[in-house]
Amino acid sequence: MSFAEEAEQELIRLMVENRNSAFSRFEKSNQGESMVIKFLYKYGEPTSPKHLADSLNLSSARIAVVLGSLEKKGLIERNMDENDRRRINVTLTESGKKAAKHEKKQMRDKIVQIFKMMGEDDTVLFIELVAKFVDCAQKISLKEEGDQ
C-alpha cells in the first residue's frame, strides 16, 4: 500500500471517529443523501430512521425528506419490522449498494490523488496536524459542555 493510500485510510479513520464531535458543525452542509447511503452501506444491516438521524446528527424532518428522495430513486427500502410492527427498518437496495460503493471509490480516489500531489512528507505532516486539530476541537467541545 502506498503512503498516500495509508494516509487516506488514516484521514478517513480520523473523520469517522470524530464525526459526532466538534466536526459535526462543519460537516452539516455536506450531509444528506450521500451521507445516508454511505452510513447504511457501512452499517450493513437494517436500521431505523431515528438511528440514522442520531448517527448522522440530522433532524428527524431532514431524515424523512432524505429517505423519501432515496426511496423514490430506488436506493433504499423502508419496511415494517417483523417483530415490532411500529418500527420501520431502512435498508439499501442493490442499486443503493452500488451507489455507495461508487461514491466511496470516488472519494477515496480523490483523497489519494491529493496526497500524491502533496507528497509523502507533507501528507504525513497534514495527517499529524489534522489529528492535533481534532484533539484541540474535542477539548474545546468538552470544555463547552462542561460550561453549560
From TrEMBL:
The keyword Heme is assigned to this record: no
UniProt xrefs under Pfam families: HTH_34
GO molecular function: DNA binding; DNA-binding transcription factor activity
PROSITE patterns: HTH_MARR_2 (PS50995)
Annotated ranges, domain HTH marR-type: 4-135
Keywords: DNA-binding, Transcription, Transcription regulation
InterPro entries: HTH_MarR-typ, WH-like_DNA-bd_sf, WH_DNA-bd_dom, WH_DNA-bd_sf
Name recorded for this polypeptide: HTH marR-type domain-containing protein
Organism per entry: Enterococcus termitis
